[in-house]
Description:
Bound molecules: ligand MTE, molybdenum atom
Largest sheet: 5 strands, mixed
Structural class: mainly beta
Low-confidence stretches: none
Distance between the termini: 78 Å
CATH topology: Sulfite Oxidase, Chain A, domain 2
Shape: globular
Strand content: 35-45%
Order of helices and strands: EEHEEHHEEHEEEEE
CATH architecture: Alpha-Beta Complex
Number of domains: 1
Helix content: 10-25%
Strand order of the largest sheet: 2-1-11-5-6
Number of helices: 4
CATH class: Alpha Beta
Amino acid sequence: MSRLSAPPRTPPPLLAPFALLGDVERPATLTVEDLRTRWEQHRAEVVFDCATNGPQHHRFEGPLLREVVLDAQPVFDARRRKDRSRYLLSVTGGDGHHTVLSWAEIDADFGNVPVLLATRMDGQDLGATGSQLVVPADRCGARYVSAITQVQVGVWPVPA
Ligand SMILES: Nc1nc2c(c(=O)[nH]1)N[C@H]1C(S)=C(S)[C@@H](COP(=O)(O)O)O[C@H]1N2
Ligand SMILES: [Mo]
């Protein structure tokens, strides 16, 4: 019997990129591979508590959120701490879960928290699922947003 069907093709790897957008000069679409190759990788061993599953221990690797966002050139005046202190970051996961951080939490002149955009969790590549937010100072897991689809930079509107 002749073999008419083409040999099975290996499916292309899932990229699961996320959008970095909002009040930035250079919006970007970034894959986990971009996060791994374009920025220095940092490590974090964390324990966070989940209300439903109890304490979770994980090892994460990835670039600092601060460095990735700075490369997109937020529109704040980088020389003025007061201006930087007005900004927020909203991080969204593939299931719609989203959370906010203030820019000041991760800014070296303010909270200086080494928040990561993880490229690996417990040695496993996150390339197919997407990056995960790592907030080592948090005792609760709610801001460890997984399968990130969007990081938005902006300010809270204030009445005129
Ligand atoms: N995308 C997404 N990320 C998420 C959540 C979620 O619902 N969606 N839950 C958060 C919560 S509440 C916790 S405790 C941690 C760990 O959740 P897990 O134990 O289900 O991995 O993931 C966080 N990240
Ligand atoms: Mo949780």
